TrEMBL record:
<dbReference type="InterPro" id="IPR020904">
    <property type="entry name" value="Sc_DH/Rdtase_CS"/>
</dbReference>
<keyword id="KW-0560">Oxidoreductase</keyword>
<dbReference type="InterPro" id="IPR002347">
    <property type="entry name" value="SDR_fam"/>
</dbReference>
<protein>
    <submittedName>
        <fullName>NAD(P)-dependent dehydrogenase, short-chain alcohol dehydrogenase family</fullName>
    </submittedName>
</protein>
<dbReference type="Pfam" id="PF13561">
    <property type="entry name" value="adh_short_C2"/>
</dbReference>
<dbReference type="InterPro" id="IPR036291">
    <property type="entry name" value="NAD(P)-bd_dom_sf"/>
</dbReference>
<comment type="similarity">
    <text>Belongs to the short-chain dehydrogenases/reductases (SDR) family.</text>
</comment>
Amino acid sequence: MSIAALLQPRPGLRVLVTAGASGIGAAVARAFHETGARVHVCDIDRAALNRLSADVSGISVSMADASVPREVDMVFDDVQANLGGLDVLVNNVGIAGPTGAIQDIERGDWERTVAVNLNSQFYFAQRAVPMLRQSTGSPCLIAMSSVAGRLGYAFRTPYASTKWAIVGMVKSLAIELGPHGIRANAILPGVVEGDRMSRVISARAAATGMSVEAMRDEYLRKISLRRMVTLDDVAAMALFLSSPAARNVTGQAISVDGNVEYL
């Protein structure tokens, strides 16, 4: 097989993308669909799911809150019905969580961030692994962490804590699942262009008393390449990690961030 062929995911892969109706998740789902994969997406946002279904024929969808185990179970019922099995799980669910000094963070906000960002990763992995063990398509699990999963992040303690935990989960799963031929890796996006990052920058600017423009410039100065990454940059890494070229890549936390130097 040529190197060029190795870089393409195998056509017909059965892929589940969580929080896949918008943002990074939608970019990943569309990218897999374009390679000939069979894709199922779940999301909490019904309107976003409807838009995705209207835009991309052939992607099946479920509406679910990924932090609620019974709703996760329903997603896997739909995956089995629509895909008949699973080769790739892209565990993408995540929220920004609160911005503020540790003494000002509400406990409920902390608990919600952990529930969505970390507990959901466990719930989906727990249900996916038995299906991945039945796969003959070089099965893999991809977890979406963040550059905040390798650097400290002042005023974003709940978010950073969950993203570091995701890296620990992936490295542990790589060891646990390796004997079964299942690979597990984390993608750590950096500052991603889009509405979500704009909201994060605005919230951090308000927390620190800076203008939004000054905070945006500060974010760019922290990046070696002095630019944000795109949704497609992240999706391309997910495709690579699911391709034959990455058959010996597991247990890795791979940054797609232009080298963010500090947060």
